[in-house]
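[Discussion] Sanity-checking designs against the backbone

I'm trying to build intuition for which residues belong where. Below is a structure token string of 555 positions. I'd appreciate it if someone posts a full sequence so I can compare it with mine line by line.
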């Protein structure tokens, strides 16, 4: 047995598996040519960031487009930052957006043949690879304390040297294995470091699926790969997990680009095929004219829970993220207004290189369009799912009379250019509550927005009386409006808005003022869905009752 083999056995006496054993246990996946295997690998340290949703959407869609595999892996080796239950919550939020893994960590269970899918349960797999690395001289125990490493960094900074544990400054890398074994037997604390062969003054060529050919400084850092607590660092776990889970494509934010030379060197040292890398643009926000990353601390929309709790339709949020992902999506959407967004095929070569600006106004516009294009049954189902979790008032309205709710929601909906009343499901209750008699009564407790300097109460009463006596609800919309013009003229108002504008002194108002007075009387507000359909849904009896109440109040 060589000294390096003896050192490896001393550190890992209980590890009997070999790399060959792992290769047999986790064989290459039997998939079609071109099938992509990608993953969502969160840390259980908090909420799902909008940027993580963006990256996960990409990681999910490419396997779906190629009959591949999308899996989840929980990277829970940073025990100090872990928040209990956040791993399960992240998966629930992804599921709310329709993103469900084919295999992996599923919250309270695991699915698939390449597990365990929690890094904290994979310690022996990591140790098997590290044991092999030590035997081959690719890794070694380092006894330097954090204080010593800090002193080294201070010295390097003072002398304007490249900081870090590398080359001549990696002093434990030259320790004789026999000396290292004796120090371990003396119970000196240590970590395991990777022995880099690189030189940061050299360049390596890397191909990124989004950014093309890159030249980056070669890694020379002897990074820690196993911490003193027996758990691996991110870089080493990435190497082992993505190899043995047979990941073909790693999609992640561009902030990981500086780590790429480390990952390249680790894969080369292990002699394993590297996955393809695609570094996505970071989602940015414009703040006082300058760009910054979307911030958990400053921006509520940085958390996907903001969109769920505020009733944004998930289709709209996902569609916005696809517009960020591929520059040709919006042109496709204009030609396919009613199509499912996932009829569109994402491609890496159409992805933007620059940080994408997050535009909440654009999100709302897309959501408004998507909600408008749902039929009444789809809309009601999704609204009810939202209401059950987040809006008890809306839930009660839907449960009170689902068909009546659908009738309201269907106003000018199922046609080529549908009406766009709602940006989010949260908008529904305040827009439609006046349709319900008991809620209309409550609204009447507030001051009516009849703040007209032009019209006296007597004028308003005169208009309402005239309309009450001739509502015209037996007609279709066009003839109803012609009838409303007749009522307008009976009240001395002008039935033609253009004519009124030319001769304002001849009339107290025009037909638009008449319809606004009626609208306020029956709804307590100036803006509602199409007045004709509102009146039709309420019916003559209810409209009469409401108008009488307003007349009484104004008298």
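Best answer:
Here's mine. Compare freely.
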């Amino acid at each position: 047995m060589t000294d390096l083999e003896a050192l490896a056995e001393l550190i890992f006496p209980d590890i009997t598996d070999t790399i060959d054993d792992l290769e047999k246990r986790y064989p290459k996946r039997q998939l079609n040519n071109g099938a992509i295997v990608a993953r969502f690998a969160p840390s259980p340290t908090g909420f799902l960031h909008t940027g993580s949703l963006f990256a996960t959407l990409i990681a999910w869609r490419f396997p779906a487009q190629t009959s591949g595999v999308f899996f989840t892996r929980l990277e829970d080796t940073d025990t100090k930052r872990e928040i209990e239950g956040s791993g399960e919550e992240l998966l629930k939020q992804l599921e709310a957006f329709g993103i469900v893994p084919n295999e992996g960590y599923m919250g309270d269970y695991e699915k698939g043949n390449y597990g365990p899918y929690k890094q904290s349960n994979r310690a022996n797999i990591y140790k098997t690879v590290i044991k092999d690395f030590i035997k081959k001289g690719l890794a070694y125990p380092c006894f330097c304390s954090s204080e010593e490493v800090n002193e080294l960094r201070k010295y390097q900074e003072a002398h304007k040297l490249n900081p870090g544990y590398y080359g001549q400054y990696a002093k434990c890398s030259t320790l004789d294995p026999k000396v290292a074994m004796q120090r371990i037997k003396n119970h000196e604390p240590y970590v395991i470091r990777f022995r880099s062969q690189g030189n940061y003054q050299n360049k390596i060529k890397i191909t990124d699926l989004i950014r093309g050919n890159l030249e980056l400084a070669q890694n020379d850092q002897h990074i820690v790969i196993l911490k003193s607590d027996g758990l691996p660092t991110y870089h080493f776990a990435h190497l082992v997990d993505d190899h043995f889970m047979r990941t073909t494509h790693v999609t992640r934010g561009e902030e990981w680009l500086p780590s790429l030379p480390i990952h390249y060197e680790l894969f080369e040292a292990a002699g394993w095929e590297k996955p393809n890398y695609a570094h996505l643009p970071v989602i940015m926000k414009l703040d006082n004219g300058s760009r910054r990353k979307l911030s958990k601390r400053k921006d509520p929309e940085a958390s996907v829970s903001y969109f769920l709790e505020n009733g944004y339709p998930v289709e709209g949020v996902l569609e916005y993220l696809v517009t960020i992902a591929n520059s040709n999506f919006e042109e496709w959407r204009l030609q396919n207004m009613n199509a499912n967004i996932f009829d569109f095929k994402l491609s890496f070569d159409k992805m933007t290189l620059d940080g994408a600006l997050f535009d909440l106004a654009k999100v709302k516009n897309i959501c408004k369009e998507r909600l408008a294009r749902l039929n009444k049954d789809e809309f009601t189902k999704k609204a009810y799912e939202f209401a059950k979790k987040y809006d008890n008032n809306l839930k009660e309205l839907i449960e009170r009379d689902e068909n009546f709710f659908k009738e309201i929601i269907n106003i000018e909906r199922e046609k080529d250019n549908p009406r766009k009343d709602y940006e989010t499901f949260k908008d529904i209750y305040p827009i439609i509550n006046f349709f319900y008699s008991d809620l209309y009564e409550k609204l009447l407790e507030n001051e009516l927005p009849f703040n007209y300097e032009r019209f006296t109460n007597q004028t308003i009463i005169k208009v309402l009386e005239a309309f009450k006596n001739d509502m015209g609800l037996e007609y279709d919309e066009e003839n109803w409006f012609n009838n409303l013009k007749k009522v307008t003229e009976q009240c001395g108002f002008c039935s033609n808005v253009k004519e009124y504008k030319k001769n304002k002194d001849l009339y107290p108002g025009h037909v638009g003022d008449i319809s606004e007075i009626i609208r306020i009387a029956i709804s307590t507000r100036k803006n509602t869905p199409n007045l004709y359909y509102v009146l039709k849904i309420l019916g003559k009896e209810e409209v009469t009752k409401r108008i009488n109440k307003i007349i009484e109040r104004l008298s």
